[in-house]
C-alpha cells in the first residue's frame, strides 16, 4: 500500500474531534470520553502530532487510521476499501448510504443526547 493512499485515507477519514467531545486541557492536549470504551476523560489527543491514546483500553498512541480501524473493526486494507473504494478512487464504493448519526458533530452534549434518545424511544414504543 502506497504512502499516497495512506495520505489520502487520512484526509478522507472523519477527524478524531468529530468522534468524541474533547475539552482542551493544555495548549497541546485535549481529553474527553473514549469512543471505544466510553470511559469519561480517559481519551487524550495531542494536537501537535495528531496522536491519541486511552488511559483504559488503548495505552499505545495511535493516529486517526488506528482509531477508525478499531471503531470499524477493520484492518488497514478493509478501511481503505470502505473509505476509498476497492480501486482507491475515493468514490467510497463500499460506504453505506447514510452515515450513522454522531451527536458530537452537532455539538449536542452526551447527557442531552441520552435524554433525547430515551424520550424518542419512549414515544416510539407507544
Can you summarize this structure?
With 126 residues, this protein is of the alpha+beta class. It has helices spanning 3-12, 64-72, 76-84, 110-125, and strands spanning 23-24, 29-32, 43-46, 51-54, 58-62.
Task: Looking at this protein, list some descriptive labels.
alpha+beta, DNA Primase, Chain A, 4 helices, 5-stranded antiparallel sheet, single chain, 126 residues
Report the sheet with the most strands, covering strand number, pairing sense and barrel closure. Answer: 5 strands, antiparallel
Number of domains: 1
The CATH superfamily label reads Zinc finger, CHC2-typedomain
Tell how many strands the DSSP assignment holds: 5
Strand order of the largest sheet: 1-2-3-4-5
Number of helices: 4
CATH fold name, please? DNA Primase, Chain A
Cα gyration radius (Å):
16 Å
Architecture (CATH level 2) name: Alpha-Beta Complex
The parts where pLDDT drops under 50 for at least 5 residues are: 92-99
Tell me roughly what share of residues is in helical segments. Answer: 25-40%
Distance between the termini: 52 Å
Mean pLDDT: 78
Structural class: alpha+beta
Overview of the structural elements:
- The protein has 126 residues and is of the alpha+beta class.
- It has a single domain (3-94), classed as Zinc finger, CHC2-typedomain (DNA Primase, Chain A), CATH 3.90.580.10.
- 35% of the residues lie in helices and 15% in strands.
- It has helices at 3-12, 64-72, 76-84, 110-125; strands spanning 23-24, 29-32, 43-46, 51-54, 58-62.
- Strands 1-2-3-4-5 form a five-stranded antiparallel beta sheet, with helices on one face.
- A hairpin with a 4-residue loop joins strand 3 and strand 4.
- Helix 1 (3-12) packs across helix 3.
- The longest helix has 16 residues, at 110-125.
- The chain is globular.
- 17% of the residues are buried.
- Residues 92-99 have low confidence and may be disordered.
